Amino acid sequence: MSASQITLYIAASVDGFIADDEGGVEWLDEFEQDGENDDIVADYEEFFADIDCLVMGATTYEQILTFGEWPYGETPTYVLTHRDLSRATDTVTFVDGAVDSLATELEGEYEHIWLVGGAQLARDFLQQNLVDELRLSVIPVLLGSGISLFGADGETHRLQHVETTTYDAGIVELRYEVAT
């Protein structure tokens, strides 16, 4: 197996928020139902077809459960949590441990790992230099406040630009390699 890659692929408002003050993402609905998003859907499907497993925090997991049917099929999913949660599918595994231990374990088993979110988990992975690629979909909306993707941890992370893609719906995807 070739070297594993952990990709943080996430959407944020232009002002850097991934959710509103209550943790809601309803502001994304307009762009999901927009008739101009076929190009976005095709690129997402291409990305997801290459994914071997998912990693997310408990709050992100619980939010995804409210959307209806589990959107990730049988792709192995690891949820970091200290709580008892119900499993969406048999492929969901709950993990109560350190992100570096989980990353080491997953990199030994999977080639392409998608770090779905949320913000705190993304920050934890970044702080420990565990993210190889950042794909940030910038949504053309200013929320004004909410849950900040990167926060203010005071750490500098160098990024190497790989690609910028613009979509008809006004979304811009920035793709970077994360320098360690």
Automatic annotation (TrEMBL):
InterPro entries attached to this UniProt entry: DHFR-like_dom_sf (IPR024072), RibDG_C (IPR002734), Riboflavin_Biosynth_HTPR (IPR050765)
Domain Bacterial bifunctional deaminase-reductase C-terminal: 6-172
One GO MF term attached to the UniProt entry: 5-amino-6-(5-phosphoribosylamino)uracil reductase activity
Name this protein carries in UniProt: Dihydrofolate reductase
A GO biological process held by the record: riboflavin biosynthetic process
